[in-house]
Fold each of these.
Amino acid sequence: MFNSKKLSTVLIIVLSLSILFLGIYAFASEGQEAAKEAAKEIVPGSTTPWWVWPLVLFVVTFILGILAVLGGVGGGVLFVPIVGGFFPFNIDFVRGAGLLVALAGALAAGPGLLKRNLASLRLAIPVALIASAAAIVGAMIGLALKPNVVNILLGATILFIVLIMAIAKKSDFPKVPHPDKLSQALEITGIYREESLGKDVEWNVHRTPQGLALFIIIGVMAGMFGLGAGWANVPVLNLLMGAPLKISVATSKFLLSITDTSAAWVYLNQGAVLPMIVVPSIVGIMLGSMVGVKILVKAKPKAIKWMVIVLLLFAGTRALLKGLEIWK
Amino acid sequence: MTEDRKKASEEQLAYAGVLNIGMWIGLALLVITFILYISGVLPSYVPIEKLSEIPQGSNVPYWGMRAHEFNQAFNVPTGWGWTSLVAKGDYLNFVGIAMLGGLSILCYLVILPILIRKKDTAYVVIAIFEVLVLALAASGILKAGGH
């Protein structure tokens, strides 16, 4: 459990991140206040050079990339609430960027996971069809909603994700007494080498229809909020359908490359993608992820995971209060 | 038999191969075109310094506006209209973005002949539907928001 040394480490990291984000927010507020004053003048203008925010974005997403790997979460679930809450970009552009960030991460990880047979194409393909179609619907709904409604719903969703992360159990090797008829018909099964046990693990899934039904909801939320949906994919694949944890995590990561593609196209076609936001974010998160993988060997995952949970709690609350116009 | 099942299937390896190459090309394009954009080598359609600017009569910067408001302010084309602006530094970036967005469609098209050859009818049908879904999303036919 938590000893005082671990608690101190977590508190120091949380405090540092809080100072960082409050600093960003203060900088933004000062810029906006000065900008409002400038706007009252006849001549419009910006008090912040254009390159400042993309540079800050690159640094922040680099840190998020590290945290995402260490905390075992996707980049999207951190990106949208944090960038949406503390940067001056409209939530439309943030969501468009969030989907592309999650997509880029999934595309980068996908080939390796597929080649190692940890991500299962047979499991992913039927799920992807449902989730990607639903993500289109979610994206269209999300772009039609007013920003404060989006922020309220996003805040509530992030807080729900925090709850899932805090209390959900994971099952390394769920027991699947009998694969259901649908999974048998589709031959959704496999074997992989579990190195930690030094043996081959054969796996099946069950409750496939129920899982597919849940992926409709997951797809809609992914499209609506620009989140990656890995936070939901893994529990459904692992706890509901019974896929081993490693297969669930790997297949979920790969699955994002298809789900997020469909939603990202809707945002792109609606003009809700700005390269000045997208590219620094993608490069930042991918570089951060590479560093995170190297640090992972030495890091203490549980402490980092709780830090990520606190960060998401902060970001989710911020989104909720922003939507309610309590904390603008 | 078990050793065969432990290995990734032919279609899985084909998917991974195309995904890998396409991903690296897409990312490289993204970085190169972004450098061209911010360096000003190519003129931008939306002046770069305007993005953070607060327009007259407003209290939010241009990139703080809703997407449709931003598009109206700068007369930005939606759908595939960006292709007419690829000579502009900002819209040239969309080439890399579109490549990353189109990869999944390409991968499905690559594995379809393998699935057909294996007579995996269910997955052929699912894969065709997936291509149609992704193509629909990419087509620009679907409209959203836009007050």
Note: Chain B touches chain A through 80 residues (CB under 8 Å).
Amino acid sequence: MAYTICEKILLEHSEVDEITPGQFIEAEIDMVMVHEQLGGRIHEEYKKLDLDYVWDPNKIFFILDHWVPAPTISAAQMHQVCRKFAKKYKFVHNMGMNEGICHQVLPEKGFARPGMLIVGSDSHTTTYGAFNCLSTGIGATDVSVVFATGKLWFKVPNSYKIHLSGELPKAVMTKDFILKFIGDISTKGAIYKSLEFHGKGAESLSIDGRMTISNMVVEAGAKFGIFLPDKKLELWLKKITNKPYKFVIPDEDASYERIFEYNLSDLIPVVAKPHSPGNIADISEVEGIDIDQAFLGSCTNGRMEDLRIAATILNGNKVNQKTRLIIIPASKKIYLEALKEGLIEVFIKAGAVIGNSTCGPCIGGHLGVLGEDEVCISSTNRNFVGRMGDPTSKVYLASPATVAASAIKGKITDPREML
Amino acid sequence: MEKVEGFVYMMGNDINTDDIVPSHCLTLRDPYEMAQYACEVIDSNFPQNVEKLNIIVAGENFGCGSSREEAVNVFKILGIKAIIAKSFARIYFRNLINQGIPGITCNWNDDDFSEGDHIEILLQKGLIKNFSKNKTISFDKLPEFLFNIIEENGILNKIKKEL
């Protein structure tokens, strides 16, 4: 049998001898990530099992990131439930509330390594595909199953191969690629599929940029979004972990349900218009739309590459008076690095508000909730009705470069004019 | 569970989990209070309307978006018995089955269902009887593995027995 990366990793984690798309299998989980959901549905569901243990407290990664520090009494109560649970079940990897956003912190701490099978109580758990591991989001009941047994049922997905060639032009980012891809394939175009990113174009991308792509594959419905391993990944891992891992590459004659070709050199800046990540328009179609707020941050785009390009654009400029710019580094580590590089100073001098590392505005939680009829350009992943605040507000999803350029002009702006 | 009988509540394509449970009420401690906000951006009378119309019939990509299982839980609290959709988002589908609620994937036609129709889903036969329209619509039966989870009224009941 010839296998895709997804099939190889699932096979490795199950007891079956062969694996085929459509088959139901039970697989052993290497790591489960939980955040505030622990104090939401998870603790309620886990109660039903009436257990005084979890299968392996060393394989649970727990972090508070969505509403930190607590902006409301109900969020504070939710955090209390989470902390109590983590203590009761003796979680080993308790990150607390000041490390940053789960999908940034988990890889930074070396918990996402090639060949691993990781699940998390968040749909953007697909992000770790950038590290050549298989990772996906699950609900509270599934988390409870993993807590109790360390295993989970999977339906083996078909795989799509996305072959990338060329290199991204100036001021065009991986966000522009993944938005275009979602627009092309539609928000239901990859439901239950494993996406595999191949080619020299994929190799040309930074790890930060790959994470943005893997992060957003779920907006096309995908179960996994996984990159082939390479030298760049090896170097990245070397800096953060000495734990062993094995690169997983697909067999040459592995079978793919669909194959896509993209030349990165042909890409231009795009946005997702309200109210769907699949509602894609070229930048020229939306240029000039007035914005009330610009947000740069989130698990999709709050990394060094994102902050650097924004700082290059904002350096020496001012945020437009009719607009507010909010910037949130995705983790404490990134915040410190940005401080050292002088990026935070550039942002503050330009007139941006800098927030602590949290999901915050992306989910309309805090630190930049939108009011009635307000328009926001955002580096986040979803622009559903009411996602970032009032149900009448409108969100345009875009790359960090486009967000920064737009903040200066006070209207949606092509970043290629600003670099 | 062989049959599910009820009345149709119609919904569109790409109903996302932010539509079902807006994030501003995600931190609420009382799930019954949370349920009062269900689908508020789509239908401000949703909780009252689904008291009678307790089977949702929707289009493509139902439940896309976040992994929040509250989006299944509030439906359960409001008494929704089953969801029929042309396609489901992956996590939502798992959450439904795991909670013991039938998620029926059915490529229905425009004239198959209207709001208020009295229907019966025959799970193991892969058939939906629409009494109001006097017609029968077929769907792909759930694989046995998933059907068994529904039979147990959710995966945690199944796990409990196995532990």
Note: Chain A has a mean pLDDT of 98.
